[in-house]
Amino acid sequence: MKYQKIDSPEILTLDDSLIIEGDALHALRMLPAQSIQCVVTSPPYWGLRDYGIDGQIGLEDTLPQFLNHLVAIFNEVKRVLRDDGTLWLNIGDGYTSGNRGYRANDKKNPARAMSVRPDTPEGLKPKDLQGIPWRLAFALQDDGWYLRSDIVWHKPNAMPESVKDRPTRAHEYLFMLTKSERYYYNYEDVKEKGLNGKLRNRRSVWNVNTKGFPGAHFATFPSQLILPCILASTKLDDYILDPFFGSGTVGVSCVEQQRKYIGIELNPEYVELAADRLSAAEDRIIKIAA
Question: What's the fold here for domain 33-237?
Fold first, then answer.
């Protein structure tokens, strides 16, 4: 795979969909202000996965460092977002490690094993649920974002857990945030059927199965979760940004709905995976010089 290579943080001219390989904060600084209509993304969760790449998000030593890192990134997202734009943010939660420094293998979920794990955050206890989604939502609210909705993503096929002292978690949160008090929102295109069979305004609990993608080795951001965000917040040919592109599912959804995508991804393996899925032309992939 060939790339354009950029050595200085020049501002890009957007004329089509694009994949940028590099650090999210640095890549965002290359995008023009007010160029993006909608952001749909799911950043790495804190302390739950080691992607084995320098500069990754999610293995910061402390929870405040993780939250501050994301707040800084989304502050730059705010700059590139149009005034009537929307941010849809999926973020998962986790339990404290009890300062074990590792996470053991689970027969039902082998990928959960980790050789390194952050210590229990100050003020929390062993086995505490950390409340990360709401901590991040409130931090973004404090940073100027309008927190407009909390959507419960219910997972009918949730991963089993080897626990017997609490319910198995079967949901995550998807937050809808905006840059301004008034923004573009097409509620007609995302109506749902009510119990009487008539269309009604979409409710805040979405039942969407998780779905893996061969080669990614983890559950990807499901397209059924992405689609309502795109339809509600954009028009044809609008630009949609995912600063944590992963295997490129947001990009696939954009192509299907005739929108343009800007995907930013740090891991070159995932960039290659996304590019293959999207049949991205070589001149549509930019690598930021380290």
Answer: Rossmann fold (3.40.50)
Tell me which residue of 212, 217, 285 sits closest to 249, measured CA to CA.
212
**How many other CB atoms are there within 10 angstroms of residue 34's CB atom?**
14
Per-residue pLDDT 10s for the chain (290 aa) are 555 555 555 899 999 999 999 999 999 999 999 999 999 999 998 876 766 677 788 888 899 999 999 999 999 999 999 999 999 999 999 898 765 555 455 555 455 554 566 788 889 999 999 999 999 999 999 999 999 999 999 999 998 888 899 999 999 999 999 999 999 999 999 999 999 999 999 999 999 998 876 665 555 789 999 999 999 999 999 999 999 999 999 999 999 999 999 999 999 999 999 999 999 777 799 998 76
- SS3 state of residue 16: coil
Phi/psi at 250 (5° precision): -60, -40
Structure tokens at 146: 């309008």
Joined together, the tokens standing for residue 179 give: 């840059």
pTM: 0.89
Beta bridge partners of 287: 5, 21
Q: Where are the domains of the chain?
A: 33-237
- 112 φψ region: left (φ > 0), alpha (ψ -120 to 50), beta (else): alpha
d(CA 278, CA 93): 30
